[in-house]
Amino acid sequence: MANTATRANKEKNTRTVTFKSKEHEKFYQKYLPRCRYQDEYHKALVYCLGIDRDTREHVDQIYDFRTGNINPECLHEGWQTSGSVKIVRMAFNLYCDGTPSIYNYDDSDLRGQLEEVQRYTVSDLFCCGYARYFWEAVKIRYPEYCYYVDWEDMYVEN
Q1: Is residue 84 part of a domain?
Q2: Which tens digit of pLDDT belongs to each residue from 103-117?
Q3: From the centroid of its chain, how far is CA 51?
Q4: Is 47 within a domain?
Q5: Would you say 51 and 81 are in contact if contact means Cβ atoms under 8 Å apart?
């Protein structure tokens, strides 16, 4: 009987989002409605961009809410820190399903493209103090895969 109750709770698909701070949560509530869509792509993007003060303060240089376009060139701006570039890369990756900033390098700069792609690896992004919030962003972006409270039940059911 306990399994049925657990399964019923899972089917409600309700979960609490963990924010880094009140400022992070306020940012999310303010900027998500500015997005053209309220889907998982945009939710994960806005969630990521709200993690850090630097990305919150420069959000309009990172993402154009009017057009829905990201700005990969922002990764090279002077306000960026080692942490904020990780946040922007994670946000871009979850939003675009790729590494859009590699296209900032011309075709002759293969080394630059390879170095940039390596900065999107799991180990490069997650080996930092933001890992907990990056995982939360992944859960926001992929709720159908991160929905189960008890992973063992998921594998037993499938």
Answers
A1: yes
A2: 665 566 666 666 777
A3: 10
A4: yes
A5: no
